[in-house]
Amino acid sequence: MNVTESGTTTYKLQHCTEPGEYHYEVRIASEVRKGKRSFFSGMKMRYVLQCQGYFNTGTLRYRLFCKEKVPVDPKGFPLKKLSKAMQLALRITAINDDLVFHVSPAMKILQLENPEEVREKWKGLRPGLESRYPDLGKSITDFEWQLKDENIQRCYTEDTLFRFLFPAIFGTSYSERFREGETFMYHNAIEEVSLPVAHKARLQDFYRILDSGKLEFEGVLQADHKDFPRKRLNMLLGELADEGSQHSLIFENKGYYDLKPRSGIIKGGAMQTRIAIGRIYKKETEIDLKLLEDE
């Protein structure tokens, strides 16, 4: 705890870096509307997150293992019948069921340690996918592009779900007032276009003695950032809207983490993101996280 000159009390969140195992349930749901068409996808997963301790380099090694993956409907119930696209997604994402990351003490993903293992799984999977799903060749080709040397690390370090699981919140002092954080690229925010977003967070209902607290956060779109993809957005708009029409871009991102500050772990959280371009495009994404057990 620290008291600033303005009288604001701040707390530095400490990360538990001792070797241990944490079991989480994660639900991610996304709905996209393009004009009159809408698409929904939802998945409920059970992850085992293993902290394997420090490297000599001062970074941590984490193993993220997916024990279960169940497609769900908008109400969260398991789907009885899977579409061809969902069947394909389940088979492709199976290569991500066992990942090892180098993680900073703040709990930020720095590097995927086992990219070759991921690629080997993909090489074994691809021939069967191409023969079974010949009409979905573009999806398979897009995934192949993501696994190239120049792309694979960025795909994992910037992925929205993995960023939520490894949020880089520790080792930083927070108060009841919003604190500005780093700017990051919100991966595939609109189709395959990523957007620069500034992160800010504050503590609420923080009781260290009770090992309880909440970190609320928001993401603010940075339209003046040097990496703002104005040309790509205009090209996308040209595909979706009538020539000459104008539409405003709306970006809303907020959420929270339930913390055990004395223990240095995350016991749950949620994030909601809403992106819209006028009435021609809307994407809403929700992620929920719950700690089931820790050892």
Let me know the largest β-sheet: 11 strands, antiparallel
Q: What share of residues is helical?
A: 10-25%
Task: Please indicate the percent range of residues in DSSP E strands (runs of 2 or more).
Answer: over 45%
Kindly identify the CATH topology.
Answer: Lipovitellin-phosvitin complex, beta-sheet shell regions
Number of domains: 1
Please identify the structural class as seen in this structure. Answer: alpha+beta
Mean of residue pLDDT values: 89
**Lateral arrangement of strands in the main beta sheet:** 7-6-5-4-3-14-13-12-11-10-9
Shape by Cα distribution: globular
Number of strands: 14
CATH class: Mainly Beta
Radius of gyration: 20 Å
Number of helices: 6
Order of helices and strands: EEEEEHEEHHHHEEEEHEEE
- In whole angstroms, the N-to-C terminal distance is 27 Å
Are there runs of 5+ residues with pLDDT below 50, and where? 3-7
What is the annotated CATH architecture? Roll
Report on this structure.
The chain has 295 residues and is of the alpha+beta class. The chain has one domain (2-294): Lipovitellin-phosvitin complex, beta-sheet shell regions. It is 22% helix and 47% strand. The chain is built from 6 helices and 14 strands. The strands form 2 sheets. Strands 7-6-5-4-3-14-13-12-11-10-9 form an 11-stranded antiparallel β-sheet, with helices on both faces. It is globular.
